[in-house]
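Morning F.,

Quick status update on the modeling queue. The single chain you submitted on Monday has been processed. Sequence for confirmation:
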Amino acid sequence: MGYVGLPVALQFAKAGRVLGFDIDAQKVSRLNEGKSYILHIPSKQIAAAVRAKRFSATSDFSRIRDCSAVIICVPTPLKKGRLPDLSYILETGRAMAPHLRRGALVVLESTTYPGTTDGELREVLERGSGLRAGKGFYLAYSPEREDPGNPKSHLSKIPKVVGGFTPECRKRALELYGRVVRTLVPVASCRVAEAVKLTENIFRAVNIAMVNELKIVFGAMGIDIWDVIAAAKTKPFGYMPFYPGPGLGGHCIPIDPFYLSWKARQFGKETRFIELAGEINTAMPEYVVARVGEALASKKKKLRGSRVLLIGIAYKADVDDDRESPAYVLWQLLRKAGAHVEYHDPHVPIIRKSRGHGHLAGQCSVPLTPESNGMART
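Structure tokens below.
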């Protein structure tokens, strides 16, 4: 019941009864009280679904047996060395498998490399349930498409890609999502659907890296990249605007491309665009800190001893999700350079203190303004 699972649950609650599973007892309690813990999801929406008895939450996985369809929306982070971490998917599969009823549909929405659904997840479900995928239960993959913080984005209006382990599995998944999504996009297999999601995120990662590199190049020439982009995006064909920033944030774009990199190496292939984009985007915080130093030097000030206020910690405007946020890297680099760093973000609570970070308020030396692509303008 996180940033993906909760919106999906609430969407399906408009069409039927939904049971939300989460191992966090506090989340379960808050949901059953009709309270939200995610900024862009209002409590009144949850409360209305609870009052109508269309939605409730539990941490009891034995209640999987009450469900005719189960949608898995769990994190897929990276381990050290940028290795895929499927532990959340597989542990969820192990927990639910003994309680999976015959004829149930299982859909994975978590972003992962091609072969996860019909490979590792299928094996775990079959082993734990004693049922065969495609016969005893149905298995599909449908990548999440969520645009948090965008009030104009609605799950029902976002086309839904669906791939099944078998044609019958795909048919069952299409019937499920057809209840709440207007446009369905059936594809040949789970692996095609998994590849679709990776392609979407790699496209963004590579293009953000390109514009980050152009910012550095044009900056050296005395050209404002923002003026360039503003003019370029007036072209009505063959161009899509991307914007520079201090790096990549969020759970998807900084992580998901490397799932394909790892898988590609098993086939003896290299993903050079992905690796290069990762290098460029990862280096952006150092570039930002260097520019801060130059700006201060132009005023005859040094970075060491200066007070710097970071405005915005979350990876995107109007969300409270700070996963992989480059703001933390900036924070560390600025402190290493001797600056006194503070932050202000009304959407990220003071729990940051527990991570050993600084405190609120301060004098603004270098404002970072969130832009529409989730990065901060530098």
